[in-house]
Design a protein that fits this description.
With about 90 residues, this protein is an all-alpha fold. About 85% of the residues lie in helices and about 0% in strands. The mean pLDDT is about 85.
């Protein structure tokens, strides 16, 4: 009789165990998804940081080039008189 009861209990436990395993599998898939999403977030964060660094470098280079262009343009303008005849070339006596 005891053996028969154990067999019946075991048979009744199988559906319960299946539900537990299904629940565990759903939780596992959720965790896997969360880990993958976290990895994507880290990758996107790294990409954004690299883009910001590159942007800062390009901005600095642009500022240097703009300054050089302004200096070159200003130097060229100094060679020319501002108003016609205002800076005449010295003439020999």
């Amino acid at each position: 009789m005891r053996e028969e009861e154990t067999s019946q209990e075991g048979g009744a436990m199988i559906p319960e165990l299946e539900r537990i395993f299904e629940h565990i599998e759903v939780q596992r898939r959720c965790l896997v998804d969360m880990v993958q999403e976290g990895r994507r977030d880290v990758e996107l964060s790294d990409l954004l940081r690299n883009v910001q660094l590159e942007s800062n470098c390009l901005t600095s280079e642009l500022e240097v080039l703009t300054r050089q262009l302004e200096e070159a343009t200003w130097a060229g303008q100094n060679d020319q008189p501002d108003v016609e005849g205002a800076n005449p070339e010295p003439q020999e006596p």
